[in-house]
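User: Structure with adenosine monophosphate, tokens only please.
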Amino acid sequence: MNILVINCGSSSLKFQVIDTDNGNVLAKGLCERIGIDGAITYENVRDKGGKVKQETQIEDHKKAISLVLDALTDPRGGVIRSLKEIGAVGHRIVHGGEKFTKSVVITDEVIAAIREVSDLAPLHNPANLTGIQACQALMPDTPMVAVFDTAFHQTMPPKAYMYAIPLHYYEDYKIRRYGFHGTSHAFVSREVAKYIGKDASELKTIVCHLGNGASVSAVQYGKCVDTSMGLTPLEGLIMGTRSGDLDPAVVDYIASKENTDAAGVLQILNKKSGVEGLSGGLSSDFRDLWKARNNGDKKAELALDAWAYRVAKYIGAYTAAMNGVDVIAFTAGVGENDSASRALVMQYLGYLGITLDEEANNVRGDIAEISTKDSKVRVFVFPTNEELAIAQETYELVK
Ligand code: AMP
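Assistant:
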């Protein structure tokens, strides 16, 4: 079945058409600067058509979806003859709160429930809803599925998801840890198990999703028992521009020194911190940081060392949480492509009986076992594929 996968941001919309019979991507692309001016980039992957970018006015998400559907059905570059060839649409939804523990077929009640938890992701959920409504307007007879970033982590026990703050904040406002990147953690933990001929229900797995945003999860016998992101994606690892864990008193302290408020500081912690902040504003991109480090830049060295140390600490914590670990998987932009950053993390894992296979680690964007044969824990590079995971979940619900 052909599934249209939609990932809608406030001013952008990413899309892919995936044939779930074989996992092949037929077409993909991106609408940018929606509501500002606009551009659509479209790639016919099936026929190796290359990327075509067209600047055009995109006043809202409905216009963006209509441009996407036009491109998909265009007699020249399109990959389908009519919209009837799209069996369903899978929408990535950032926050499902506690309501959604798995993907669901979208109904009016589901839309209302996504709106209800929008307080928890005020930048993302409204944009996701706009994408759903735009698709419904243009494809009223096509079933739609919501796939939540938070759903996979809903199996965390209260001891892992509760913050030690007055209980009524949880009861009244649902303040707790939710976790994100759930589709990726679910996909990688399941697929890496399959790859080694096991079922996820037999393994204790730590998934390190290390991209610009980054999180670690502890997946015990197929269920997430802990993950590093919290109420928002700010908690946990040092990321491209996010600080990750810090003493909350820092917020007030910076606010008073810099004459700003909590919202101003949170903006800095989300957008100007992480490896970019630590490197003195050099870059959030690990390629730039390694280049600088290899040229003797001490700030880049500090940023990468602190980043790796934090990842290693979480691996240690999650090994304790599960009383052991069988498999560690590195995924996402840095995890899949950056052998030097993986090696920095692996330096800390000797106590687990892990030795890095340096030759095997010299891999980019491919599945590879990067621990030596005699290691006690198997470590893998395992590319994530969130779009394929969304397409598969969608297919399972509508087939
Ligand atoms: P993601 O958020 O998963 O798309 O990851 C994006 C990040 O991956 C970028 O900011 C880069 O820091 C990193 N990245 C991508 N390709 C490479 C590469 N070849 N070497 C090192 N880092 C990379």
